[in-house]
Amino acid sequence: MSGNDKWHIIKKIFNEAIELEDSKRENFIEKSCEEDTYLINEVWSLIKASKHPSPIDQSIAPLTAGVFETKNLCGKKIGSYKILKEIDHGGMGTVYLAERDDGHFEQRVALKLLKNGFSTTRQIQQFVAERQILATLNHDHIARLLDGGVTEDGQPWFAMEHVEGLPIDLYCDKHRLNLKERLSLFMDVCNAVQYAHHKLIIHRDLKPSNILVTDSGSIKLLDFGIAKVLNPDELHGIRTDEITKGLMPLTPEYATPEQTLNHPITVASDIYQLGIILYELLTGKRPYKVEGRTAERIKESVCKTIPIPPSSALNTKEDLSELSHIQSEKKLEKELRGDLDAIILKTLRKEPEKRYHSVGQFTADIKRYLKEYPVKARQDSVVYRSHKFIQRNKLGVVSFSAIILMSFIYLVTVTNHSQQIETALNQAQTEAEKSEQIINYMMGMFKSGNPTENLGETVTANMLLNRGIEQADQLRDQPGIQAQMYDVIGRAYRELGEYEKAYPLLNKSLEIWKEHQPESDLTLADAYYNLGTVLHHMGDYRESDINFKKAVQIYEQKPGLESTEYASSLYAIASVRTVQRDYETAEAYHKRALKMRLQLPDEDPANIGASYEGLGVTLFQSGQPEDAMEMLQNAYNIYRDHYRRDHPETAQLLITRSRVLQHFEKTDQAEKDLKEALEIYKSVYGENHTETGVAKKALGDFYQSTGKYALAESLYQELLNSIAQTNEDSHPLKRPVLQALSRLYMETGNYQAAEPTLRKTVQLLESVLNPNHPRLSSARRELGLCLTNLGNFEDAEFQLLKSLTSIQNRSENRGYQQEEIAESLEALVELYEQWGNSEKMTTYSNHLAQLSEVN
């Protein structure tokens, strides 16, 4: 059916439907359009436009009169193009096939023009917005803007790349693509959408008809007519939310819950629509049927209908998918069940924050499925991890580290730890020694972790790792494998925050390697680095520094050797020395790490950016703010080029840079950086994500440092209310937010409010840190000062003496430790002065004087 034929049908149905009562109109349209989604949408868009013009638009001729006065433009010239024929109608514009007619060169384009009678103020703004959005996009899988302008009678138009192709669903069926081929094509779509997100543009109307595939198999993403611009300032001030305010721009079958509820639109909306498309490509059906076309009926269908798993959709025998004819329905159901079910259903969660956080995460899970790795979306179990591993390693002889790795990734997933852990352990998997015997050891451990083997017993992460330790303890006659076991389990505990459990295992691993490997072996360097990392977390900076140095010494014995691991060890020493306030040494090591990373041919630009950023922090803390700003700007340039401006790494750098700007008293720019960082995190992760909370806290800290206490307190309380909904004391932001809030109360003299927040802070720190850790010592000192001001002298004495003792018990003896001792002595002097204990006040005053003389 041609575009004109469709339009005549739409006109006829509209003219009849507009005369009917509301109660009868919906059934009439459904029946007349014979469930053709395109026809239904067009008729309803005209009815809506005719009934609800804006006050500005009411001065224009009635929409329903003008909309059908379609001019025959064939042969007419617009700009440099001659109209050949009409291609399609949309709710707002008409698309024509046109060819260049200025004698310079031949070129066919798709020329879009506002419909006659539809050139209202708002629609012109929306049309121009689409044109400007396309002008910013330059991607192989997005149709390119070629030209644009205004006709003699003032109608805006634009010409874009003419794409001859089929909608993606029809293309897949026509060319009989199998499941993996469909997934590959779909990932090209995801790449285009992700590119748009990096440009701060959300499509909002993803559906098969807006995704064409050419005969050569190339994807082209079309129609950014209702796209949302996240940062209008980057797009000539175009504010798409204001243009579409009061409207519900969506396609009902592909609408997201937040669209129907008029909630904020983020990247999660595009991910939801991509999930519907993938569901449709693999099953031939949509995840649910949208009943009716009124706003309330659409909202009810989209928000309340829970989609069944794609594999189950195949069991509804009507309308079998074309894919089920290409490969057997039974085989297709088996391939969909499990991983693909989980991946697709994660994209279709009604709550945006529970979907994938980015299109990149979505495609990464699809790639894991294709490579037979465990997918992030799926509920973890030891059996599942083991099954996926065996699928990838069908020879049956695999390394122990790979086996224990599966249980570790399981632990990490259920405790919501970062993707970096999996990367590090994948490397361990590749390098580990293969051993048939170890499979038997670990399969026994997995079996013990299976709920069917432990009826009535909840198998926890610690239980599983403890069983791994028991297995490792039995391997004294196989020291190499035993050392690997201790190393991997130790790192597992480290990433779970169980540093006291991680330390002895990593230390055992190191001792075994020292006994059985040459001192120059790189395996030893890795072991020193891993032990140094956990010691750093435990607050034992002296021993941490020693281990990092030993790792570096091994690398230094290999002339000409430069590697990512070598640079990471140098960077680690710099980080420790920065914490110890040994800025001169820290600066030297940062510069060595940076130089090496710049020379490595395949080094991740993110690592180079991290080196610039780390060096900038060290320079700033050492009193070199100008040089610090230069380094931070270098890091910013790398992140901008590597990540785009809206990437979380860029946001983190903006937070760091804001601190330097505050030093230069550029508070307006500092506040702008912090607000931009917060908006980036919101747009990428959503309102309630931990990273968004980090940015919100940084803004609160800024307000506190500039004396805007009410704004700071409001942000802190907002964060605590959000954290309270998780009911988890282990939430990574709970402790720092409590500490910041208590500091605010102390600064403003509100000691009654400060006391409970400080007590909760100390309690949280005690549960995760070494008793002598600097952060715990500092929190106790703050609590002691608060109690002193409240007149609770005995409790204040207890906290201050415990703080002082913990500092003195540390093995290192660096300058900043002496500063901590001095601060604790000053707090004790103040306590005894207020308490009226002149004897003890004199004693601690003398200690303080002696310390000053030594320094």
UniProtKB/TrEMBL annotation:
It comes from Rhodohalobacter barkolensis. This is Protein kinase domain-containing protein. The keyword ATP-binding applies. InterPro entries: Kinase-like_dom_sf, Prot_kinase_dom, Ser/Thr_kinase_AS, TPR-like_helical_dom_sf, TPR_rpt. Keywords: ATP-binding, Kinase, Nucleotide-binding, TPR repeat, Transferase. GO terms for molecular function: ATP binding; protein serine/threonine kinase activity. CDD domains: STKc_PknB_like. TPR repeats lie at residues 483-516, 525-558. SMART domains: S_TKc, TPR. Residues 81-370 form the Protein kinase domain. The keyword Nucleotidyltransferase does not apply.
